[in-house]
Amino acid sequence: MPELPEVETTKRGLQKEIAGLFIRGVWTDLATKDKRKHDTISNPRYFAKFKKEIIGRKILSAERRAKNILINLSGGRTMLVHLKMTGHLLYGKYIFSKKENRWMPKDQKGPLSDPFNRFLRVVFTLSNGKELALSDMRKFGKITLLDSKTAHDSKHLSGIGPEPLEKSFGFENFKERLAKKLNGKIKTVLLDQTVIAGIGNIYSDEILWRAGVRPERKVSAIREPELKLMFKAMKETLQKGINFGGDSMSDYRNIYGLPGKFQSEHQAYRRTGKKCRKPNCHGKIVRKVMGGRSAHYCPAHQK
Q1: Which residues pair with 27 in a beta bridge?
Q2: N or C: which terminus of the chain has fewer CB atoms within 10 Å of its end residue's CB?
Q3: Domain interval for residue 198
Q4: Same domain for 59 and 180?
């Protein structure tokens, strides 16, 4: 699942490319009878209303909240996009094949033709002759429409914890947030979006590796010096993820269809059995399943 660095990379790309454009049309093949998706464009009735609401509106800006992308439109409306497990947004020139009933990149040799980019589920036609598309192999992605004034108070966003890269989010804030789950295992707590926003499986492993803390440690057992190392590691690791354009170990691609490069910087995530890269450490990375999620760590230097 795209995490904070991947979603932030996407948001920055959208802000650069689509702000100021108008939406001319929208297409989707996400139709389902799943009642859990009644208030998203996967519901055909909702999509019909959604389409009427957004066509003709101007795209004002793009922002990020946790793992959600918010595309603010004229007229006080905001599209919320959650990429879920395998989704990513793409921007470029596409053509619609009536014969195959699907959209395809106009340039069949460019990055938009990457096999990871072929699962087009939603396509917005824009006023500059290009398209904004959602590629999502597993069809878990969510798009819905909100009132801009109350978007952050909606059920989609209201329970999310603070943004870890905000300058106002200091060490005391970090310590207070973790204290809400004192009996929780630190890996699981870092993944909890109600505690801190945007951290997922990849970056939690990397943060704990850098801080030297084992993922199964209870929050209550982590000493303050270790918490300070974790706080520093969190800020540095997430920022590094953004600097490298996100992580493309799996499906993620940026809006131009290109992979990020953070996967080349992994110290723990999916390095099972490999030598630990920490200087003077002779350990090997192990994998442990915790609460249905995989944790990767070095048992030698992570205590």
Answers
A1: 123
A2: C
A3: 171-297
A4: no
Residue 169 is predicted with a pLDDT of 98
Residue 101, pLDDT above cutoff 90 = no
Query: CATH code at 193?
Result: 1.10.8.50
Which residues are catalytically annotated? 2-3, 67, 293
User: Which CATH number characterizes residue 110's domain?
Assistant: 3.20.190.10
Angle between helix 171-178 and helix 224-243 axes, rounded to 10 deg: 110
> What is the Cα gyration radius of the chain?
20
Q: What is the reported pLDDT for 291?
A: 83
β-strands 131-136, 120-126 pairing = antiparallel
d(CA 24, CA 58): 10
pLDDT (0 to 100) of residue 145: 98
Predicted TM-score (pTM) above 0.90: yes
User: What is the helix, strand, coil percentage profile of the chain, to 5?
Assistant: 30, 25, 45
Mean pLDDT estimate for the chain: 97
Nearest to 89 by CA among 53, 61, 58, 131: 131
CB 216 within 8 A of CB 184: no
